[in-house]
Design a protein that fits this description.
Elements: H1 3-11, H2 20-25, H3 31-43, H4 45-53, E1 64-67, E2 75-78, E3 81-82, H5 84-93, E4 101-106, E5 112-116, H6 117-133, E6 141-145, H7 150-162, E7 165-168, H8 175-185, E8 189-193, E9 196-198, E10 201-203, H9 205-213, E11 221-225, E12 243-245, H10 246-250, E13 262-263, E14 267-273, E15 281-286, H11 287-301, E16 309-312, H12 319-331, E17 335-339, H13 350-358, E18 362-365, H14 367-376, H15 379-382, E19 391-394, H16 401-411, E20 418-420, E21 455-458, E22 467-472, E23 482-483, H17 487-495, E24 507-511, E25 517-522, E26 526-529, E27 532-535, H18 536-543, E28 549-559, E29 563-572, H19 581-594, E30 603-607, H20 620-627, H21 642-652
This protein binds 5'-O-(acetylsulfamoyl)adenosine.
Length: about 650
């Protein structure tokens, strides 16, 4: 975290109690209830979670709520049978909500679609039958690389319905990233589209997939969903025997597809996320615990009511979209809005225009988006009627108090509580959060733990401190079950500190006199760019693939809109030892090819040397000081202190 943010957060003393009218109608409306239920959830977790799970349908009840005997490989609802697609879709479609909209969708060009719960059930069942007809069985992994169209949600639900493990790959990732993920997960099929709209142009998804799966022997089918069902197709090459148009295959299948009875601990999905070392890791989530956790957090954090129009602006390609577009809200029978495109297309008021037209009542977005709106100016907001909004949320990175206040004033008109929700891909759902009818909020704080969550701020020895490492004392149902194919990395990453007694998320935090948590950012080498996690080691390994690069060091620096930006220090060899614009272009292209455009650095500094300790370790702390223009920390351990001066000059040039 930047010193600026640290300072503004340390000075932050404003407190905003929930508006009395909100509290009066909230599912939980007083602090006493929160405290009592939170205490109960820690004293009697089995009783608490059994009650929550009892609000969902089970084909067979669990025998034990929790089993920690194989820690850190925890199990929840052992012996229970359920299907999350049943709870998200059938439960409503076969009841009173048959004709209630489940998904309201708007494409970037302005096209619209609506699916009631009844229609969603039919679409998901048909999609599931297509998967079966192409040879997908329970336990197979299926990669999904689709734009934000209803078919993305439908494909995910269809996999869950038949017990196939979905592995969604965000549509901004490159062909190489697809390859890595498909190979690691051993995916048999890739579901993609002929295109999707982003900022006025079409993403050529199918050709990216073709390149990505070229060397993936595990893939024997590619299913291509047309962006305009029943309309015009975008041109793409189809390989006979491997590639199938969804609309052609679906024509022959039935509308009926029973939900597979899944064991609570059967895998539901894999989602890849960046860590501090090596390749992205496949985070594993299972059916039972994840169902219960996303269900209950959605219900209470968003205070979901039948009349709400709920909009989470994330992409389903990230965990936020999995948990809080698809599974959580739908398990609550909510009406969910989905938007395909960019927030500033065709103009910077697209989001407010959508809120106004669809009468959105709950809006959940990322701080980076809020800062972009601030920059685009208040006029774009003021053009629209936002009076339908009653609750706002943020997620993905720390929110600076200035952005929080703007969100509160300009979007919430000082009427709407803001829930700043802290969580991760690994946690499955929200762990630290205000309850909107209960918790007085403070700009920049994710406030207090959700039910069942026992959080602490510790020093490396395990003592509670005011500022240190965030730690979670006991497992909750949504916790990851492992890293796909790498049990050792799972233990090392999350359970190595404090003798495995706490889950370690990799974040630093502060705790104030009211016990509120202030998560300040990563303490490992993961950088959060516009809410996207990027491992610096991952990027460094991309740079050294270039023949002219001998070594590189990548750091995160504060960025006005993105939260953090990437700065790469690159050591060259051979031709072009000084570096050139051409080389800079080549390196940027390489990042776009190996990871995706969103991971390109703000700045590339070519250098003849890097600051290292005498044992040869790159001193990132010094690079960070250089990049933020701060007084340099201790340089006495440097092998060659003169390196720093020349880097400073280059950085400022
Ligand atoms: C949901 C998501 C996780 C990392 C996490 C934090 C940061 C997320 C907040 C936050 C401060 C928040 N999953 N983070 N939410 N930091 N306040 N409310 O973003 O796996 O992609 O990223 O994001 O560093 O470890 S994620």
């Amino acid at each position: 975290m930047s010193d600026d943010r640290m300072e503004s957060v340390l000075k932050e003393e404003r407190v905003f109690p929930p508006p009395p009218s909100f509290a009066a109608n909230a599912l939980i409306g007083d602090m006493e209830t929160y405290r009592r239920e939170h205490r109960r959830s820690l004293e009697d977790p089995d009783g608490f979670w059994a009650e929550a799970a009892g609000e969902l349908d089970w084909f067979r009840p669990w025998e034990r709520v929790f089993d920690g005997s194989e820690a850190p490989f925890f199990q929840w609802f052992v012996g229970g049978k359920l299907n999350i697609c049943h709870n998200a879709v059938d439960r409503w479609a076969d009841g009173e909500k048959r004709d209630t909209p489940a998904i309201l969708w708007e494409g970037e060009p302005g096209d619209q679609r609506q699916l009631t719960y009844g229609e969603l059930k039919t679409e998901v069942s048909r999609f599931a039958n297509v998967l079966k007809s192409l040879g997908i069985h329970k336990g197979d992994t299926v990669a999904i690389y689709l734009p934000m169209t209803p078919e993305l949600a439908i494909a995910v639900l269809a996999c869950a319905r038949i017990g196939a493990i979905h592995s969604v790959i965000f549509a901004g990732f490159s062909a190489d990233s697809i390859k890595d993920r498909v190979l690691d997960a051993d995916s048999k099929m890739v579901i993609t589209g002929d295109g999707g709209w982003r900022r006025g142009s079409v993403l050529p998804l199918k050709s990216v997939v073709d390149e990505g799966v070229e060397a993936c022997a595990c893939v024997d089918k590619v299913l291509v969903v047309p962006r305009n069902p029943g309309g015009e197709r975008m041109a793409c090459e189809m390989r006979p025997g491997r590639d199938f148009w969804y609309d052609e295959v679906v024509a022959g299948v039935s509308d009926e597809c029973p939900c597979e009875e899944m064991d609570a601990e059967d895998m539901l999905f894999l989602l890849y996320t960046s860590g501090s070392t090596g390749k992205p890791k496949g985070i594993m989530h299972t059916v039972g615990g994840y169902s219960v956790y996303t269900y209950l957090t959605s219900k209470y954090v968003f205070d979901l009511k039948p009349e709400d129009i709920y909009w989470c602006s994330a992409d389903i390609g990230w965990i936020t979209g999995h948990s809080y577009i698809v599974y959580g809200p739908l398990q609550n029978g909510a009406t969910v809005l989905m938007y395909e495109g960019a927030p500033n297309h065709p103009e910077p008021d697209r989001f407010w225009d959508i809120v106004d037209r669809y009468k959105v009542s709950i809006f959940y977005t990322a701080p980076t988006a809020i800062r972009a709106f601030m920059k685009w100016g208040d006029d774009w907001v003021e053009k629209h009627d936002l009076s339908s909004l009653r609750l706002l949320g943020t997620v993905g990175e720390p929110i600076n108090p200035e952005a929080w206040m703007w969100y509160h004033r300009m979007i919430g008109k000082e009427r709407c509580p803001i829930v700043d929700t802290w969580w991760q891909t690994e946690t499955g759902g929200i762990l630290l959060t205000p309850l909107p009818g209960v918790t007085p909020t403070k700009p920049g704080s994710a406030t207090l733990p959700f039910f069942g969550v026992d959080a602490a701020v510790l020093d490396p020895e395990g003592n509670e401190v005011d500022a240190g490492l965030l730690a979670i004392r006991r497992p909750w149902p949504g916790i990851l079950r492992g890293i796909w194919g790498d049990a050792e990395r799972f233990r090392k990453t999350y359970w190595c500190n404090w003798d495995g007694r706490y889950y370690f998320p990799g974040d630093g935090a502060r705790r104030d006199k009211d016990g509120y948590f202030w998560v300040v950012g990563r303490v490992d080498d993961v950088v959060n760019v516009s809410g996207h996690r990027i491992g610096t080691a991952e990027l460094e390994s991309v740079f050294v693939e270039h023949p002219n690069v001998a070594e590189s060091a990548v750091i995160g620096v504060p960025h006005e809109v993105k939260g953090q930006g990437l700065v790469a220090f690159v050591l060259l060899r051979g031709r072009d030892a000084e570096g050139s614009e051409e080389l800079r272009g080549e390196l940027n292209d390489l990042v776009a090819k190996k990871i995706g455009k969103f991971a390109r650095p703000e700045k590339i500094i070519f250098s003849a040397d890097l600051p290292k300790t005498r044992s040869g370790k790159i001193m990132r702390r010094l690079l960070r000081d250089i990049a933020t223009g701060q007084a340099l920390g201790n340089v006495t351990t440097l092998a060659d202190p003169s390196v720093v001066d020349s880097l400073k000059e280059k950085y400022q040039a």
